[in-house]
Design goal:
By secondary structure, the chain is an alpha+beta fold. The protein has 5 helices and 5 strands. The model has no long low-confidence stretch (mean pLDDT 91).
């Protein structure tokens, strides 16, 4: 994952409604959840829900499958893990010191 992809995904998750939808889908597991169930749980209009789900789909965080008349949404766990890995990739390695080309560790604030 690169900075642009991570930034796009985090921006999409920056909406409280989209974050709530995404968390519900993560909780639902591999089976996912029908759009109707999401609408029932969240209590939001279908058009609003569709708008938010489409943003999650475009960002690659959610997939949708049609099962007859049911539209089922699923969290893309591979993408979720890629985002988490990106955020943790260089944990605690320090910030590059441009003057000396070495790594400098920031001290915690008191």
């Amino acid at each position: 994952m690169n900075v642009e992809d991570a930034s796009r995904q985090l921006a999409v998750l920056g909406s409280p409604t989209r974050l709530e939808i995404y968390r519900l889908l993560v909780k639902a597991g591999a089976e996912g959840a029908p759009v109707g169930t999401l609408q029932e749980v969240l209590g939001i209009p279908g058009s609003t829900l569709s708008h938010h789900i489409s943003k999650l789909v475009v960002a690659g965080l959610v997939t949708q499958d049609r099962e007859s008349r049911i539209l089922r949404c699923r969290a893309d766990y591979r993408q979720m893990q890629a985002l988490i890995d990106f955020l943790q990739a260089e944990c605690c390695r320090g910030i590059p010191d441009r003057s000396t080309k070495s790594q400098k560790t920031l001290e915690p604030a008191d």
